[in-house]
Amino acid sequence: MMHSPTALIRRRDQQTMLVAAVIVLQSVAAAFFVADALGDLTADGLTRHIAIEALIAFALLAGVFLGAWHMRELLADARRRERALAIASGALADHVAMRFADWGLTAAEADVALFALKGCDAAEIARLRGAAQGTVRAQLSQVYAKAGVSSQAGLVSLFFEDLLDITANAPKASDTD
């Protein structure tokens, strides 16, 4: 099921708030146990039981801080990925528009071609555009001819080839070190 970017961001923000609430609760619990261990230490002196209790309380506190730090890093990484995806989505839209312009598609042909790239058949495109199926078929034929392909699959494959060429020629992480 596809979700809108706004819904995904809202869901991420809700999850962030839930994690923040759990971290606050864990922090309060850890602070209580540390304070209890320190209180027992001052009242009863150092015993094996109090030393173990203090060690566990400080380990819990350290776990809370490390977990919070790690969560912050994960959230920052998620935001970076969302920005990269938004840039890639915009870049794909720009690339499609550039290819359509290179082929000299009319506005109607570009509209039909975009529906074809999304996987719509001629009947669906006609219904969505409020046009006759014959008109859409003629426009698709023009699009295919201008793109140098003979089918919808061929049209889609041109864009996959472009993406694969970009991916194959992109620098690898080891190349940038």
TrEMBL record:
Keywords: Membrane, Transmembrane, Transmembrane helix
Keyword DNA-binding belongs to the record: no
The keyword Transmembrane is annotated on this UniProt entry: yes
InterPro entries recorded: Sig_transdc_resp-reg_C-effctor, Tscrpt_reg_LuxR_C, WH-like_DNA-bd_sf
Domain HTH luxR-type, chain residue ranges per copy: 102-159
SUPFAM superfamilies per UniProt: C-terminal effector domain of the bipartite response regulators (SSF46894)
UniProt-listed Gene3D superfamilies: Winged helix-like DNA-binding domain superfamily/Winged helix DNA-binding domain
Ranges that cross the membrane: 46-71
Protein name listed in UniProt: Helix-turn-helix transcriptional regulator
Source organism of this protein record: Novosphingobium aquiterrae
